[in-house]
């Protein structure tokens, strides 16, 4: 007598072992995650500066392309820059590539040394992306969904 179970028996046993609401607990696949909306980001620049900001990703007629605007804040021991940038974002499966263009310096003197803040991110979920800031080097970066607070 064989002790192996057929695929239909195993599949049924597995399905019965799952909680009724297992589908709700399983995270959505990164490829299906809705990434439009407001995000906060940070990057580790490995210097005496902090680098944070906000990004807004807006849907376009192409589900893999997003309109984008970001504001980056770089605070160093001697200088601070806050820079508003327009950007475009392209989704390739679970990757998001953001290319930026400086629009204006909101704080700090405009200078040629401040380069546009571009990102290459892996979409982990609809609330979290992780990757690199590509600007004046490669630096680890994280994007986290922000929630509107109604006061």
Report on the structure:
With 151 residues, the protein is mainly beta. The protein contains two helices and eight strands. The chain has helices at 7-17, 22-25, and strands at 37-43, 50-59, 65-75, 80-92, 95-107, 118-125, 128-134, 138-145. It has an eight-stranded antiparallel β-barrel. A hairpin with a 2-residue loop joins strand 4 and strand 5. It is globular and about 45 Å long. Residues 1-28 have low confidence and may be disordered.
How would you summarize the topology of this molecule?
Blueprint: H1 7-17, H2 22-25, E1 37-43, E2 50-59, E3 65-75, E4 80-92, E5 95-107, E6 118-125, E7 128-134, E8 138-145
Antiparallel strand pairs: 1-2, 1-8, 2-3, 3-4, 4-5, 5-6, 6-7, 7-8
What is the percent of helical residues?
Answer: under 10%
Largest sheet: 8 strands, antiparallel, barrel
Spatial separation of the terminal alpha carbons: 69 Å
Helix segment count? 2
The SSE string, one letter per element, is HHEEEEEEEE
Which stretches are low in confidence, meaning pLDDT under 50 for 5 or more residues running?
1-28
Which strands sit side by side, in order, in the main sheet?
A: 1-2-3-4-5-6-7-8
User: Strand portion, in percent?
Assistant: over 45%
Q: Overall pLDDT, averaged? A: 82
- Rg over CA atoms, rounded to whole Å, is 21 Å
Assembly type: single chain
Q: How many β-strand runs? A: 8
The coarse silhouette is globular
Structural class: mainly beta
């Amino acid at each position: 007598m064989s002790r192996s179970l057929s695929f239909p028996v195993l599949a049924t046993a597995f399905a019965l072992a799952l909680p009724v609401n297992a589908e709700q607990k399983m995270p959505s696949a990164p490829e299906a995650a809705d990434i439009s909306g407001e995000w906060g980001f940070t990057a580790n620049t490995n210097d005496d500066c902090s680098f944070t900001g906000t990004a807004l990703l807006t849907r376009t007629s192409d589900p893999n392309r997003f309109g984008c605007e970001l504001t980056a804040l770089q605070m160093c021991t001697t200088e601070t820059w806050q820079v508003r940038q327009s950007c475009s974002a392209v989704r390739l499966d679970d990757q998001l590539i953001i290319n930026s263009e400086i629009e204006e310096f909101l704080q700090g003197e405009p200078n040629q040394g401040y380069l546009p803040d571009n990102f290459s991110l892996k979409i982990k979920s609809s609330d979290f992306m992780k990757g690199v800031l590509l600007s004046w080097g490669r630096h680890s970066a994280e994007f986290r969904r922000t929630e509107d607070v109604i006061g």
